[in-house]
């Protein structure tokens, strides 16, 4: 890497070198091993692993549910972050601290406790059942687990920006007679959109790869509630098939990277848009 | 920086935990439902071995899904002995040269010191009147059984159903396939392991019948009280034979061949058999079996050898990727 | 709902109508109550189902205590490693322009988009017995996978971006004027780092470290693949919970509640520090 260090500060080689060393040994080397193993299959073997109806269905579920979950997270997370930053009320700090729970709670625990709550004999599940709503062992359950693990990403990304955001614009809009809806949609949202997209992308990435919390509540039914990471586990644990598992892992990784690139592009676009407005 | 060095020091001191010469360590890599059994057996063996050889042996037992455990040993988990749910998971280790290919002939009874059978657990009073295999494919009956891909125990469940159908008058593989497909149509939740399935049935209240190993069913009965569940024994079922083996390549490196061998033989001894029976596994030893006869009802059984040949064939034709089980599951949806 | 009655807005746009405010706060509380409080309550309810004596017995089991020790050990190694990484990456990304910088940034974020299960599998492909470095490691008697180093590697990989992500935007926004001023006054590189930069970013650093720590202690998917499940030896707390859930539900939830308490404890530290140095904190936000 050529240093075009315009900065006069020292430590470019040390800091960049160390960063590259860690990334190389912890990320790039394992990643290369994954892609290498996946490539050993050859194109036909690769398609035989990926092109089945079952794999495609699980990928559709993992990505579809994750996109939906991240969208729900974006809406709910915006609400929560806004309220936590802008208003003062009793127990605010305690609620604020709670947001980090899904970060720290082992995903297996989250899965088990969500299942305990939403199973037909669970505290919530038994109340929802008469209404005809089934959560545990359905796609709704998959979605719920993903919403749970993704929410803090949105809230925690938005909070600092909301805290630092100046209210001049809003005030100006107010004095010009804009309604609160207009203020929100015309002034605030465009300003927040880039950050919201960052949070959305993080929640999305997390939800796509999520295993522990989903596996317990999903019911793992073929074509319906079987997520892609579970197929990976099935391949290595019953077939000892690292190549097939690596192929599926590589496809998942590539797809989420594509999504994230699209997200970054969208973000740049919204930023420009916000400035123009 | 100082914290980093401290951390490194901790790391090194942890990995260099030296063992005094007289102490022996043994790692037993096992499958999920044997935890309670080996807790007792390991303690008993420690006392036995101290008396026999004067050595202080510490047995550590690791529990997880059978296939996952075999994969872990393949990837370098230092198992002195493996005690898994089915012979194929040990065959895989033999294929990689970790132990002799004829491992199953090295100990009595196909190297499985205890057995179990596949039975049904139903809710008290048997509201859906489930008596035998055909009742499981009736409309409106929900069956709980884990995924054979991730649970070794569930492969025995699958084979029990298939074998029963084959053994019916006029039974053939075509009819067996139709029967098993109909059965999986009634499965609302496909758990990853046997205990997960038991939890779904017992704690979540899902399903009308749980297909389970007799050992699991008896244990669920003991834990949840006989007022809530009943065990139904089908007209015929499979003998589940969980095998054990010493991993030659690893004991050679550890110098633990003798104690590992003694450990497995201990499982066949009257004391070991008694512990197995107390944990609801059917003992092989007639004297112990007689003592616990009341616990284990008479069952008409068939073995995998009689009905299917060996596990390698079973694995490739039934459970390989794109094999019979996969297509059955696809049809059942 | 006394909380809602006590709503007093001191937020900057103090003109939002009272009704809208109450509705918004109520909405947020419902979301948090539904998504966060209920699962937490469910854990404690299940854990205490058989009474306090059972609960205390379950969390004092030697294997569980071993798991607590292991989890703390892994976090104590992985978090400082990621802290150093985060500082180095931020220094490089914030203060220098170089070719491939965008790629480096993307690479730092990459672990976010790898499924933890795949993370664990990748490590096995490199460090496992049949992996790229497997035979070399075996020849030198080094066990990585199914031992502490593997658990640390998996945790480092999964939590790698957390500190860097907190620091990079802050340091980019703050600029390097102060550091450059220190340089012209004759300070050495390390002096600048410890006396100028570190104090300026310490709150963001703390925030990143705490998040990283929380995530490190709770990591499941990746360590699940590389642990080997030796009770008291390579079972971290989350794995212990998973195994107990196969055997004894209430004990599993008791241990899970321990983990939840550990998290609450970490977050309480953050609160405490934030409260003590509130002014500085906000100035840096």
UniProtKB/TrEMBL annotation, chain B:
For this protein, the record's InterPro entries field holds: Sulphate/thiosulphate_BS, Thiosulph/SO4-bd
Enumerate the GO terms in the molecular function aspect.
Answer: molecular carrier activity; sulfur compound binding
Tell me, in one coarse class, where this protein mainly resides. Answer: periplasm
The record's section on Gene3D superfamilies has: Periplasmic binding protein-like II
Location of this chain's protein in the cell: Periplasm
Question: Hey, which family's this protein in?
Answer: Belongs to the prokaryotic sulfate-binding protein family.
The protein's name is: Sulfate ABC transporter substrate-binding protein
UniProtKB/TrEMBL annotation, chain C:
> Where's it found, cell-wise?
Cell membrane
SUPFAM superfamilies according to UniProt: MetI-like (SSF161098)
What topology does the record note for this protein and the membrane?
Multi-pass membrane protein
Membrane-spanning segments: 22-45, 65-91, 103-128, 140-164, 249-269
A single Gene Ontology CC term: plasma membrane
Matches recorded under Gene3D superfamilies: MetI-like (1.10.3720.10)
Which keywords does this chain's UniProt record carry? Membrane, Sulfate transport, Transmembrane, Transmembrane helix, Transport
What region holds the ABC transmembrane type-1 domain?
68-270
Read off the InterPro entries from this record: CysW_permease (IPR011866), MetI-like (IPR000515), MetI-like_sf (IPR035906), Sulph_transpt2 (IPR005667)
Please indicate if the UniProt record lists Nucleotide-binding as a keyword: no
The Swiss-Prot or TrEMBL record annotates one GO molecular function as: ABC-type sulfate transporter activity
The record's annotation in NCBIfam families points to: 3a0106s02, permease_CysW
Assembly description: The complex is composed of two ATP-binding proteins (CysA), two transmembrane proteins (CysT and CysW) and a solute-binding protein (CysP).
Role according to the record: Part of the ABC transporter complex CysAWTP (TC 3.A.1.6.1) involved in sulfate/thiosulfate import. Probably responsible for the translocation of the substrate across the membrane.
This chain belongs to which protein, by name?
Sulfate ABC transporter permease subunit CysW
Organism equals Dyella choica
């Amino acid at each position: 890497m050529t240093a075009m260090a315009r900065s006069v500060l020292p430590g470019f080689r040390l800091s960049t070198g160390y960063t590259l060393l860690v990334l190389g040994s912890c990320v790039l080397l394992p990643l290369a091993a994954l892609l290498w193993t996946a490539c050993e299959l050859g194109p036909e073997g690769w398609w035989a692993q990926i092109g089945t109806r079952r794999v495609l269905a699980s990928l559709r579920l993992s990505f579809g549910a994750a996109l939906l979950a991240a969208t729900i997270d974006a809406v709910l997370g915006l609400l929560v972050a806004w309220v936590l930053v802008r208003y003062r009320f009793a127990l605010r700090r305690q609620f604020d601290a709670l947001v980090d729970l899904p970060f720290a709670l082992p995903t297996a625990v989250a899965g088990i406790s969500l299942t305990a709550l939403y199973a037909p004999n669970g505290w919530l599940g038994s109340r929802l059942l008469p209404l005809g709503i089934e959560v545990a062992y359905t796609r709704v359950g998959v979605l719920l687990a993903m919403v749970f693990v993704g929410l803090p990403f949105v809230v925690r990304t938005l909070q600092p920006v909301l805290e630092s955001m100046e209210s001049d614009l809003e005030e100006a809009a107010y004095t010009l007679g804009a309604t609160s809806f207009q203020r929100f949609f015309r002034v605030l949202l465009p300003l927040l959109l880039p950050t919201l997209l960052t949070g959305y992308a993080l929640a999305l990435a997390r939800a796509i790869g999520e295993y522990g919390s989903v596996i317990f509540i999903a019911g793992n039914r073929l074509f319906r509630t079987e997520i892609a990471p579970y197929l990976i586990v099935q391949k290595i644990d019953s077939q000892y098939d690292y190549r097939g598992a690596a192929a599926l892992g590589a496809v998942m990784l590539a797809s989420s990277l594509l999504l994230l690139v699209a997200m970054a592009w969208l973000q740049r676009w919204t930023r420009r848009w916000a400035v123009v407005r | 920086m100082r914290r980093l060095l401290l951390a490194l020091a901790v790391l090194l001191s942890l990995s260099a935990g030296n063992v005094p010469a007289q102490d022996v360590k043994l790692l037993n890599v096992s499958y999920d439902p044997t935890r309670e059994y080996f807790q007792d057996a390991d303690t008993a063996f420690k006392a036995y071995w101290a008396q026999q050889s004067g050595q202080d042996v510490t047995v550590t037992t690791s529990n997880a899904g059978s296939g996952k455990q075999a994969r872990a040993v393949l990837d370098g988990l230092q198992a002195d002995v493996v005690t898994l749910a089915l012979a194929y998971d040990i065959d895989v280790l033999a294929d990689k040269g970790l132990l002799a290919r004829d491992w199953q002939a090295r100990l009595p009874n196909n190297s499985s010191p205890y057995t179990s059978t596949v039975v049904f657990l139903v809710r008290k009073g048997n509201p859906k009147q489930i008596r035998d295999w055909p009742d499981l494919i009736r409309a409106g009956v929900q069956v709980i059984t884990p995924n054979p891909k991730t649970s070794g125990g569930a492969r025995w469940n699958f084979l029990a159903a298939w074998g029963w159908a084959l053994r019916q008058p006029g039974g053939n593989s075509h009819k067996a396939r139709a029967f098993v497909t109909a059965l999986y149509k009634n499965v609302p939740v496909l758990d990853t392991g046997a205990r997960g399935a038991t939890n779904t049935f017992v704690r979540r209240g899902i399903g009308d019948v749980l297909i389970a190993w007799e050992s699991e069913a008896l244990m669920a009965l003991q834990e949840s009280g006989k007022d809530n569940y009943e065990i139904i024994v089908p007209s015929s079922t499979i003998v589940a034979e969980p095998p054990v083996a010493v991993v030659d390549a690893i004991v050679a490196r550890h110098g633990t061949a003798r104690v590992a061998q003694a450990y497995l033989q201990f499982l066949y001894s009257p004391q070991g058999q008694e512990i197995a029976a107390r944990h609801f596994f059917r003992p092989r030893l007639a004297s112990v079996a007689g003592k616990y006869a009341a616990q284990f009802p008479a069952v008409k059984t068939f073995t995998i050898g009689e009905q299917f040949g060996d596990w390698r064939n079973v694995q490739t034709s039934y459970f390989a990727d794109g094999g019979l089980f996969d297509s059955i599951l696809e049809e059942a949806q | 709902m006394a909380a809602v009655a006590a709503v007093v807005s001191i937020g900057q746009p103090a003109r939002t109508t009272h009704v809208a405010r109450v509705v918004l706060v109520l909405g947020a509380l419902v979301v948090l109550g539904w998504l966060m409080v209920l699962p937490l309550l469910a854990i404690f309810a299940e854990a205490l189902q058989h009474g306090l004596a059972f609960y205390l017995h379950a969390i004092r089991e030697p294997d569980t205590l071993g798991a607590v020790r292991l989890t703390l050990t892994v976090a104590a190694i992985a978090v400082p490693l990621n802290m150093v990484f985060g500082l180095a990456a931020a220094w490089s990304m914030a203060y220098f322009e170089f070719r491939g910088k965008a790629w480096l940034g993307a690479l730092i974020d990459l672990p976010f988009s790898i499924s933890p299960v795949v993370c664990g599998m990748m490590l096995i492909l490199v460090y496992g017995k049949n992996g790229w470095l497997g035979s070399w490691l075996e020849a030198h008697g080094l066990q990585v996978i199914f031992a502490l180093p593997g658990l640390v590697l998996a945790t480092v990989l999964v939590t790698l971006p957390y500190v860097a992500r907190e620091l990079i935007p802050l340091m980019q926004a703050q600029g390097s004027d102060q550091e450059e001023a220190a340089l012209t006054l004759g300070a050495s590189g390390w002096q600048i780092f410890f006396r100028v930069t570190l104090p300026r970013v310490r709150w963001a650093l703390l925030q990143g470290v705490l998040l990283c720590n929380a995530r490190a202690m709770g990591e499941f998917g990746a360590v699940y693949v590389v642990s080997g499940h030796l009770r008291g030896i390579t079972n971290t707390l989350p794995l212990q919970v998973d195994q107990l859930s196969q055997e004894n539900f209430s004990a599993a939830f008791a241990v899970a509640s321990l983990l939840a308490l550990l998290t609450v404890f970490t977050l309480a530290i953050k609160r405490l520090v934030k409260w003590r140095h509130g002014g500085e904190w906000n100035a840096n936000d």
